[in-house]
Amino acid sequence: MKCPYCGYTESKVIDTRPADEGERTRRRRECLRCEKRFTTYEIIETTPLMVVKRDGSREVFSRDKLLNGMIKSCEKRPVPFSVLEDAVADIVAQLQNRLEREVASAQVGELCMEKLRGIDQVAYVRFASVYRQFQDINSFLEELQGMLELQRLGEPQPQESPEE
User: Fold this and answer.
1) pLDDT by residue (tens digit) across 43-88?
2) Residue 122 CB-density burial (10 A; 0-12 exposed, 13-18 middle, 19+ buried)
3) Which of 73, 150, 62, 55 minimizes the C-alpha distance to 115?
4) Between residues 152 and 70, which one has the greater pLDDT?
5) CB–CB of 29/15 below 8 Å?
6) How far is 39 from 41, CA to CA, in rounded Å?
7) From CA 43, how far away is CA 21, in angstroms rounded?
8) DSSP one-letter string for 64-99
9) How many Cβ atoms sit within 10 Å of the Cβ of residue 68?
């Protein structure tokens, strides 16, 4: 860190504290040449994740948009909000751990459907019907048959809660 008094580039950290509710780190430093003290602030640089939509347009990834889509799919279903929040957090972590800063909306949708299939089958079908834009009853039926086949092959399926 460059000293604001003499320009020397070497300093030692005397004190470190979180600032702005943990969003920044405040460091008190001492120049190794002139021994004057100064304060610096560090922030984590984040690069926004961009979603490439079907039409080729791009928009900033929105965690809230993903969560709202999952909430809508689970409407009137016995799915706790905390389960959806955890699923969204897992999807966001998977996307942020990728090396690419752009992700196709199709990949986001597939991750979401994968999570919903393990949470609630009805919510999964609701989401898939909108996401995959089923054109007729046959395409919808194909999706349901795929789910039944997975169930027959022994893939664990979520337990349905009795309606209240």
Assistant:
1) 876 778 999 998 999 999 999 999 999 999 999 999 999 999 999 9
2) middle
3) 73
4) 70
5) no
6) 7
7) 12
8) HHHHHHHHHHTTTSS--HHHHHHHHHHHHHHHHTSS
9) 13
Query: What tokens were used for 50?
Result: 């961009």
Q: What is the sign, positive or negative, of the torsion defined by CA atoms of 105, 109, 110, 114?
A: positive
H-assigned helices in the chain: 63-73, 81-96, 105-119, 121-131, 137-152
Cβ–Cβ < 8 Å for 23, 43: yes
Region of 133 on the Ramachandran plot (φ > 0 left; ψ -120 to 50 alpha; else beta) = left
Cα–Cα distance between 29 and 2 in angstroms, integer? 10
CB proximity list for 43: less than 8 A, separation 6 or greater: 23, 24, 25
Number of H helices, E strands in the chain: 5, 6
Paired tokens of 75: 């409407």
